[in-house]
């Protein structure tokens, strides 16, 4: 029998999704009560497994809730949005000095962007920047808010590598895993590693075609395969699409703290986002806003410009 945090807590087990849905609907008033979020958190942790949670945390001294500001730790945020308890933001796994660190293993439904990346403390990987729905949690030094958009073209759902063939991003992940120096993302692999890369991406080949491919990707016979050359060879259309992007879209921002909203009233703020061409960005005459939310969103869209409908820039804190 599992020991629950408080005597009044009840552990309800169900045998099917339908039964679980019924239980949740019956508990809606409780979940909307003062301690509803806490009950939801306990449910998540118990379902995930406390031992698995401890294993995923970087250090035994880590906490799930920041003792100063009261917000969730990165490990807890990642668990809630990706189902994986890990304090790291990068994609897949990385080997650092012989130690394997696990990051985000699959595309989540909700993304995560952080002001700390703009401050060069960390970097969110492709998965967190490109969720399957256009919804992102925005992190600041003291708080988390939410940004969403009704524009579905901002995101694309990643396909299953085994059933539908490898995607461009999956190829980038596997290429990076084979790079000699994963920390600095060397951008090349040895030609002897090409066969292993093709196997990981489920790209069929023969001994003859492998030899011809090496000659094509390494015409100067240097013994290395450049990442850009490999990706351009196998994913020309996807690489071309990267040169185009949604140039304008609606955004909705939510900050649940009363003190961070005008008149102390919690409300959604809506606006329009414009993505400038890099050349337009260089010659733009208007002064670039350097607000925290602008800097945070620039970690995904470097040339983004924001215009808020009420003329007031939302607060991340």
From TrEMBL:
InterPro entries, sorted: MINDY-3/4_CD, MINY3/4
Residue ranges of every copy of the Deubiquitinating enzyme MINDY-3/4 conserved domain listed in the record: 2-218
Keywords: Hydrolase, Protease, Thiol protease, Ubl conjugation pathway
Enzyme superclass (EC): hydrolase
Domain of life: Eukaryota
Claim: Protease is one of the keywords in the record: yes
GO biological process: one example: proteolysis
Protein family according to the UniProt entry: Belongs to the MINDY deubiquitinase family. FAM188 subfamily.
Its biological purpose: Hydrolase that can remove 'Lys-48'-linked conjugated ubiquitin from proteins.
Protein's name in the database: Ubiquitin carboxyl-terminal hydrolase MINDY
Biological classification of the source: Eukaryota, Metazoa, Spiralia, Lophotrochozoa, Platyhelminthes
């Amino acid at each position: 029998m599992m020991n629950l945090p408080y005597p009044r807590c009840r552990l309800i087990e169900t045998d099917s999704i339908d039964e679980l849905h019924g239980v949740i609907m019956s508990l809606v008033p409780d979940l909307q009560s003062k301690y509803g979020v806490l009950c939801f958190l306990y449910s998540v942790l118990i379902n995930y497994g406390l031992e698995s949670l401890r294993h995923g945390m970087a250090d035994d001294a880590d906490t799930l809730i920041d003792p100063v500001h009261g917000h969730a730790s990165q490990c807890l945020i990642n668990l809630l949005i990706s189902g994986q308890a890990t304090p790291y933001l990068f994609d897949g796994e990385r080997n650092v000095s012989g130690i394997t660190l696990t990051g985000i293993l699959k595309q989540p439904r909700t993304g995560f962007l952080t002001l700390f990346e703009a401050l060069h403390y960390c970097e969110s990987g492709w998965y967190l920047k490109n969720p399957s729905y256009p919804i992102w949690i925005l992190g600041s030094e003291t708080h988390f808010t939410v940004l969403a958009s009704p524009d579905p073209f901002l995101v694309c759902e990643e396909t299953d590598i085994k059933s539908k063939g490898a995607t461009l991003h999956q190829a980038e992940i596997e290429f990076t895993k084979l790079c000699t120096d994963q920390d600095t993302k060397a951008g090349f692999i040895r030609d002897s590693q090409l066969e292993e890369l093709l196997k990981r991406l489920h790209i069929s080949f023969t001994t003859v075609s492998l030899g011809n491919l090496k000659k094509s990707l390494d015409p100067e016979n240097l013994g290395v395969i450049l990442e850009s050359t490999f990706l351009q060879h196998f994913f020309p259309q996807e690489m071309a699409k990267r040169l185009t992007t949604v140039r304008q879209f609606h955004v909705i921002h939510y900050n649940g703290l009363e003190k961070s909203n005008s008149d102390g009233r919690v409300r959604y703020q809506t606006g329009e986002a414009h993505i400038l061409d890099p050349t337009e960005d260089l010659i733009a005459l208007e002064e670039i806003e350097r607000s925290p939310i602008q800097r945070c969103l620039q970690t995904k869209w470097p040339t983004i410009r924001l215009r808020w409908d009420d003329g007031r820039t939302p607060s991340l804190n």
